[in-house]
Protein 1
Amino acid sequence: MIDKTKSHYEVIVIGAGVAGIYQIKLLADLGVDATVLDAAGDLGGTWYWNRYPGARFDSESYTYGFSFSRELLNEWHWKERFSSQPENLRYLNYVADKFDLRKYMQFNCKVDAMRFDEANDRWRLNIADGRELTCRFVIMAVGLLSIPTPPRFKGMDKFKGRSFHTFYWPHEPVAMAGQKVAVIGTGATGIQVIGEIADKVGDLTVFQRRPNWSAPLNNGPISVAEMADIRSRYDEIFATCSRTPGGFEHEPDRRGFYEVSREERQALWDRLYETPGFAIWLRNFREIFTDEKANAEFSEYIADRIRRRVKNPAVAEKLIPRDHGFGVQRVPMETHYFEAFNRDNVNLVDITETPIVEVTETGLRTTKRAYDFDIIVYATGFDAITGAFRSHRHPGHRRRKVTGLVERWSIDLSRHAGAWVPEFFHALGTAERLRLDELSAWHRDRRQLVHQVTSVHERAWLHPRRTYAGGRTTLGRPC
Ligand code: NAP
C-alpha cells in the first residue's frame, strides 16, 4: 500500500485515467518508485467522470483497449463494437486490479500547485489536503478534456431543479421519466445525450447554437465468435491503427475523387453510411479533406441524409451546418439523433435566433419566451488540453524573473504547454495538430517515459486560439 506520509518519489504521475494507468504499469515494471495522484475519488479519468446517458467510445472498443499484455487481450471480451461508459470503467478497473496497480494510486488528491525547486533539483507539489510531495520527475496524464466549461448564464445558481454539466453527471441514476429536460449544446456529447434520452423523458428541449455534422455510429454487439476472430487479428488491427493518421482502423479510399463517376462516389457513401464508426469520415476519398468542391459534394450528400431522416423540413435545415464542411472537425457519431427530432416530445430551439437570456428558478428564458424545466443539462464542452495544465498553478505564472526554459513556460502556457520544462513530461506532447496517431498509440506500445517534443511541434502552438484535433471544443477557452 502507498505510504501517504511519504514525501519523495522518483516519479509522480498526475492522472489515473487511461494514460496514467499505463504510465504506472511501465514505472512499476521498471522498479521506479512512483505514485499516481488523481483529484477524483477513483481511477478512470474521462470514464470516471462522464457518466451521462449515451456516453460511449467512438473508436472501435478493441482498438481503444490497452495492447501491452497478450494475456489481457485474450481474456477481455468487448461486448459492443463501441463500448459504453460503465463497461469502459469496468475495464479500466479490471486492468488496475489484474496488474495490482491500485496500490500506487492516491485519490481525492488534487494538485493545487507545483514548482521546480532548482536548489534541490526536485518538483514540489502542493496537494489540496495540505501535504507537499516531492519528486524528481512529473508526468502529466491529465487528459485532453478534463476541465469542463459550463456556460455563464445569469441566474444559473437560482434554478431550483437539477442541473449539471455532462462531465459531472451524478453517480447515482437520474430519474428522467416524465421529466421536462433541457439540453444545451449539440457537440459530440449533446448528440449522444439527446439520442439516448429522447424516448425516456417527458419533454426534451434542445438549445442549439451551431449544428454539427454527424453520422450514424452503427453500434452493435460483439459475439463470442466475433471476439475470437478479433483476438486472432489483434496484431494486424494494431498495425493498421499505427499507420493511419487518426490511429483508427479505418484507411482512406485510395481512388481519386475525380477518377470515379458521381454514381460510384454515391455508392461508396451509401455503403459507408451503414458502416460502423468513423468509416464515413476516414474511409472516404482523401479529397474530402483537401478539396473544397469535393467536400461540398460530400457535405451535400450528408445534408440530404439529414433531410431524409428529419420529417419537418424546417427542423432538418436547422440541423444542417452551414459554417463548415463535413469532416473538417472531428465528427460526432450518433445513434437515433436525427430521429429524436421527429418525436412529439422533442423541441429544437435555435439560440442564434432567440438567445438564452437567463436561467430562472423554474427553467430558463430566451429573448422569445420562458421555459419550465425539471432538469437542465449543460453539454457545453471543455477548455481543451491547456485547461488541465492551467488548473495546476505553475511557478512561471508568478515568478516572472525565472530564466531560460521555465521563463518560456511562464510567458503563455498555451504557447508550448510545457515543452522543454526540465523533468516534466506529459502524455499528449505539444504536437502539430495534436498528432492523434501518437496520442492513441501512447497507451498502446510505447516504452518510453519521455515524449520527445521537437521545435516544429513547439511552433505549432504559436496560434493558441484554435480548435483541438479538428474538434470544436476550444483551446485556451476560459472556464
Ligand atoms: P463541444 O464539441 O465543445 O460542444 C459544446 C456544445 O455546446 C457546442 O454545441 C457549443 O456550441 C455549445 N455551447 C458551448 N457554450 C455554449 C453557450 N454558452 N451557450 C450555448 N451553447 C453553448 O463539447 P463536447 O460535445 O463535450 O465534445 C468535446 C469533445 O469531446 C469532442 O470533440 C470529442 O472529441 C470528445 N467526445 C467524444 C465522445 C466519444 O464519442 N467518444 C463523446 C463526447 C465527446 P457552438 O458549437 O456554437 O460553440
Protein 2
Amino acid sequence: MVLYNQYMRLDAFVSRFGDFSRSESRRIVRSNRVSLNGVLTNDPSTVVNEKDTVVVDGKPIEAFDNVYVALNKPAGYVCSRERSEGRSVFELIDANFSADLSIGGRLDKDATGLLILSNDGMFIHEVISPRKNVEKEYLVETAEEITENEVSMISGGLFIGNNEFSKPVHVEVIDHLHMRIILTEGRYHEVKRLVSASGNRVINLHRRRIGYYCLSEELRPGEWKLLSENDRKKITGT
Ligand code: URA
C-alpha cells in the first residue's frame, strides 16, 4: 500500500514510516544502513518520493498517507499509550503507522467493541465533536432489571455528576437486563454515568456502531482492519 505522494527528506521518511525518532533515523541513514532504489545512501537530506524504494537494514519501508482503522477492542485494554495503565489497544495494531494513530472516541478498559483510529486529525475531530452529531450505539447490560422510570430518565436527559447534563438520548430496551443506548455527545464515561444516575449499574458495555458504520462480525476481538473510503464516509457522512 503506497498512498503517500509528496517529496520529503530521507531521514524524515525513515522516521515517519519506519517508526523511528527523527534523531535515530538521521543516525541510521548516516551509518550506511539505508538504501535508496538499491544504492546505499548516507545523506539524510536526500529527497525521496513515493516511487522510491527505501530499505533499512534489508527491510523495505512502506509509505502511507491517511489511514482509517476499525478495531474490535477486547476487554482489558486501555485507550492510552501510557504504559503504567496496562495493555494498550495500540499494541494490537502491528503496523508502521500505529504510532501516528489517534482514537475517535475512547472506550473504558472493561468496555468492548468498535474503535475507530486514524492519523487524520480532522476526521478524528469530526468523529468526536458533539457539534457533528455522529451517533455512537452501545449495547448495555445492567446489574438490575431495567425499569420504565430508568428508561424515561435516561432518554429525557439527565445530570450525570460534576454539574454535567447529558442531552436526551435514544434508548431501546432489548430485554429486562439489556438495552441499546445511542449517544452523540461522548462525555467521559457517559453511558455508565447515565445508567447510574438513573439508579442502575452497567456491568457490560459494547459499542457496535459509529455513524452508519457497524462493527463487522468478521472482526474478532483484538483484530483490526483498514477502512475503505466508503466505510470512512459511513462514519462522518463526508
Ligand atoms: N460510555 C462509557 O461509560 N464508557 C465507554 O467506554 C464509552 C461510553
